[in-house]
Amino acid sequence: MVSFLLEETNGTYGFIGIKRVSGQMCGRFTLTVELDVLFERFKNAYDTDLWMPPSFNIAPTHKVLAVIQGEKGNKFGQLQWGLVPSWAKNASIGANMINARSETLHEKASFKSLIHRQRCLVVADSFYEWKREGSIKQPYRIQLKDEEPFAFAGLWSVWKTGAQNLATCTIITTSSNDLMASLHERMPVILRPEDEQKWLNPSFPFLDVQPLLKPYPDEDIKLYPVSPKVNSPKANEPGLIKAI
Description:
This protein has helices at residues 35-41, 193-200, 206-209; strands at 28-31, 45-46, 55-58, 63-70, 73-81, 99-101, 119-124, 126-133, 136-144, 150-161, 164-175, 186-188, 190-191, 221-225. By secondary structure, it is mostly beta strands. It has one domain: SOS response associated peptidase-like (hypothetical protein yedk fold), CATH 3.90.1680.10. The protein has a five-stranded antiparallel sheet with strand order 3-1-8-9-14, with no helix packed on it. The chain has a five-stranded mixed beta barrel with strand order 4-5-11-10-7. It is globular.
C-alpha cells in the first residue's frame, strides 16, 4: 500500500471528541465510492496498491484518502485527519486541528510553513453539518448536485518522535455560501477539478492559490437531513447517508 501514514508506536490515536473553536467546522465526512471511480476522477494521481474501504462517517483521527504531489507526480495515499505540526510535543494536538481558517493560514505557526510546499487534496463525496432545531441538533448531509466525488483543499505535515513518523492533515475552511449559512457560518473549501493541480503544485506561490479558497457555489451543492446516528463516530453504515 502507498501510505503517508507510517508505523506508529504503542497503538493508535482514538477519537476523543470534537472541540469546537471559532471558525471550526467540517467534523465529519464520507467517501463511499469505489476506488476505480476515484482513479477515473483523479486521473493524474498514481498508486501501486491502494486499498481503502468505503466510509460513511469519517471522524477526526481517522485515516483519510489524500492526494499529494510526489517526485513522480501526484499520488494517492492515506493521512491521519487532524494536523500534528512537526514541532508539536504531543500528537494529541491533532484532534483539535482538523480545520484551518483560509483567512489566517499565513499568520498561524501551525500552517504558514506548509502553505507553500505541503498542500494536499482530501478526497470525499459528502460531508455533514448540524443545524440547531429547537433543543436538538439535526445532522445534514451536503454533497455536490451531480453526486460526484470531490476534493477539499488541505495541508499536510509529518510529525516525528523517536521511531514514530506520523503524517497528518487538516481541511481548510472558508465563509459559507448562502445555502450553507442556514447550517453554519463556515464551510470546507471544495476545489473545482480544474483548480486542483494548481493547488497541489508548489511552483505556484501561496498568493497565487489563495483566491481558490472560496465558498463553493450554492447552485452546485445540495443538502438533506440524515439520521442522528451519525453523531457517534463509531457508527459507519450505509443508512447514515439516507434522507429522513
